[in-house]
Amino acid sequence: MKTRITLVATLIITLFHLNSHAQIREFSLGYGVLGRQEIQVRDISNFVETKFSGTIGENTKKTFSPLGPIRLAYTMYDTKHITLGADFSYAACQSEMQYANGTSEKSDFHFFTLMGNVSYQYLDNPKLNIYSGLHFGVSYLRGKNLDTNKKGEDYLPAYHVTLLGVRYGEKLGVYGDLGYGYNGYVNAGVFYRLIQ
């Protein structure tokens, strides 16, 4: 896992070194819906239910309360069509399982994710950009069972594929994209550009 963290850190340092050549820099803040983190919590809950509770399926009521991912990103426009960047995101999900025997169990999960990214701009217009991209990095997962106070943590590979995204605005604008991974099926927010 240390190798993954070192790789992500090296990528980010390289991005900032390349930053001296970029003409446009962009900061963005966004919110995603149904990120990979929530799906992982649902998978963990299914595993816990199957292995430890003795009840499967319809006899167990499951409730999930997700938050995010909330994403903060830095992007630099390296060429007319290629952007490089890094993003940090936070997501949380609480799961509650009520078993057929009347017992229940609540757990909290928190994901802190750092990814480097590259995007291709199909349309480069001063006010409108259409793009696709790839994100790779690492996610730190911290979980806690609220009933037993048992805690756990892990480092997971993080990824996101942006199938189609749109940015609108010059210096200040909005963006939205569709994809799959740690930024959510739908991710939208605002951006601010620094143009040299």
Sequence-ordered SSE layout with sheet pairings:
Layout: H1 2-18, E1 24-33, H2 36-53, E2 61-77, E3 82-98, E4 104-124, E5 128-145, E6 151-169, E7 172-181, E8 186-195
Antiparallel strand pairs: 1-2, 1-8, 2-3, 3-4, 4-5, 5-6, 6-7, 7-8
Biggest sheet record: 8 strands, antiparallel, barrel
Tally of structural domains: 1
- Our Rg estimate from Cα atoms comes to 19 Å
Secondary-structure-derived class: alpha+beta
The proportion of strand residues reads over 45%
Tell me, rounded to a whole number, the average pLDDT.
Answer: 83
Q: How much helicity do the residues have?
A: 10-25%
Low-confidence blocks of residues: 51-56
Query: Which sequence of strands runs across the widest sheet?
Result: 1-2-3-4-5-6-7-8
Number of helices: 2
CATH level 3 topology: Porin
Beta strand count: 8
Please give the CATH class. Answer: Mainly Beta
**What is the molecular shape?**
elongated
How would you describe this structure in keywords?
single chain, 196 residues, alpha+beta, Porin, 8-stranded antiparallel barrel, 18% helix, 62% strand, elongated
Protein architecture, described:
The protein has 196 residues and is of the alpha+beta class. The chain has a single domain (2-195), classed as Porin. Helices cover 18% and strands 62% of the residues. The protein contains two helices and eight strands. It has helices at residues 2-18, 36-53; strands at 24-33, 61-77, 82-98, 104-124, 128-145, 151-169, 172-181, 186-195. The protein has an eight-stranded antiparallel barrel with strand order 1-2-3-4-5-6-7-8. Strand 2 (61-77) and strand 3 (82-98) form a beta hairpin. The longest helix is centred in the N-terminal third of the chain and has 18 residues, at 36-53. The chain starts with a helix and ends with a strand. Mean pLDDT is 83; it is low at 51-56.
